[in-house]
């Protein structure tokens, strides 16, 4: 299944994703295709809604110390719920659905997440650092929230102006 990454301001990115109840071949095919789309675009995180599927599924693939990504470090989360959160951190985030833009976003430093794997087994993970930030960013996608929704009014205004300009330039360069 070839998937295309949905880009802001596509309205689908505002949708709330639905709980997954069937851990079947269809789900496995979606997760495999999401992995392909994420790696092809140099991403480290991707939620199903970013490929147009409003299902509570996300992928995380944080690079190792040598900045390499592999299937061994891939985390698939189905129906994730943050059960504990503490501390504060700031990180310059980017998103495959908002290409070419990076903004400082405040997040919790430490989180505990309950989720299911692709076969429906219940899991718990304790995350800090980049993994914690990425999980929070991706769970926001499941609730229809983008990192740019967290910007102050003035930063958001600046972003909108700049984004429109870059989109226009991209369109012109394709003509
Ligand atoms: C920390 C903060 C946010 C996340 C969420 C996952 N974000 C990404 O995976 C972003 C990927 C990304 C990739 C880009 O493409 C290249 O680098 C070639 C990119 O650049 C352009 O769009 C031009 C922007 C974002 C995880 C952890
Ligand atoms: Co994103």
Walk me through the structure.
Strand 6 (110-116) and strand 7 form a beta hairpin. This protein has 175 residues and is α+β, with helices and mostly antiparallel strands. The chain is built from 3 helices and 7 strands; from the N terminus they run H-E-E-E-E-E-E-E-H-H. The strands form 2 sheets. Strands 1-2-3-6-7 form a 5-stranded antiparallel β-sheet. The chain has a two-stranded antiparallel sheet with strand order 4-5. The mean pLDDT is 97. It has helices at residues 25-40, 129-142, 153-174; strands at 45-47, 57-60, 75-86, 89-93, 103-107, 110-116, 122-127. It has one domain (11-174): Peptide deformylase (Peptide Deformylase), CATH 3.90.45.10. The relative contact order is 0.16. The two termini are 28 Å apart. The radius of gyration is 16 Å and the shape is globular. The site of cobalt (II) ion has 4 residues, from helix 2.
Sequence stretches where pLDDT stays below 50 over 5 or more residues: none
State the CATH superfamily name.
Peptide deformylase
- First-residue to last-residue Cα separation: 28 Å
Number of helices: 3
CATH architectural label:
Alpha-Beta Complex
Q: From the alpha-carbon coordinates, what is the Rg to the nearest angstrom? A: 16 Å
**Can you identify the CATH class?**
Alpha Beta
The bound ligands are: ligand Y12, cobalt (II) ion
**At the third CATH level, what is the topology name?**
Peptide Deformylase
